[in-house]
């Protein structure tokens, strides 16, 4: 039985280092690893690039011999793990403190979790107090008060920390889990309707 799958739209990349790995993995699967000529791969690559990334490859003509060269240029410029980690840490630092509205707190938590998960995927050690403090600094004061209260009195906090050590999860994940378990209705946060 032959099933026709829908056409996959190529990802786009504009030069944001934190998006490089995702772009490259998708591009590699959709184009780079396919049995097509390098000249065609070069066309696909150029069509997927925007802004700074496109400016880097624009001087190179659409020739088969340029494909691997251009791909290496992009990997060296945007795929440097130290630069990507630095960009992720910067993004976390620049993230504003969530306001007292529940949807914004959840949105901030999702952003923090995405950054932490990307750092872990890159081999970053997220098991340090500095990162926990950074995460906590993004929460509104009422949530922070509840976090500190729970850390002092809630046996669940000790269970989370113990479980995170056993499962090689992170202390940061324990904090995120604790924040997620706080019953926001009980601490009188505002809801936007």
UniProtKB/TrEMBL annotation:
InterPro entries: DUF1759
One Pfam family here: DUF1759
UniProt protein name: Uncharacterized protein
Protein species of origin: Meloidogyne incognita (Southern root-knot nematode worm)
């Amino acid at each position: 039985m032959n099933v026709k799958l829908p056409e996959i739209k190529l990802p786009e990349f504009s030069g944001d280092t934190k998006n490089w790995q995702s772009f490259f993995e998708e591009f590699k699967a959709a184009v780079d690893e396919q049995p097509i000529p390098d000249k065609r791969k070069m066309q696909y690559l150029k069509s997927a690039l925007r802004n700074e990334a496109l400016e880097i490859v624009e001087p190179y003509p659409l020739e088969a011999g340029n494909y691997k060269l251009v791909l290496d240029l992009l990997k060296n410029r945007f795929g440097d793990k130290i630069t990507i980690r630095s960009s992720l840490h910067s993004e976390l630092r620049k993230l504003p403190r969530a306001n007292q509205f529940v949807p914004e707190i959840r949105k901030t938590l999702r952003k923090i979790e995405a950054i932490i998960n990307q750092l872990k995927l890159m081999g970053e050690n997220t098991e340090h107090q500095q990162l926990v403090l950074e995460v906590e600094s993004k929460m509104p004061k009422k949530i922070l008060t509840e976090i500190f209260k729970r850390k002092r009195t809630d046996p669940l906090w000790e269970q989370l920390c113990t479980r995170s050590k056993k499962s090689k999860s992170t202390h940061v994940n324990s904090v995120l889990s604790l924040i997620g378990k706080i019953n926001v209705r009980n601490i009188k946060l505002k809801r936007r309707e």
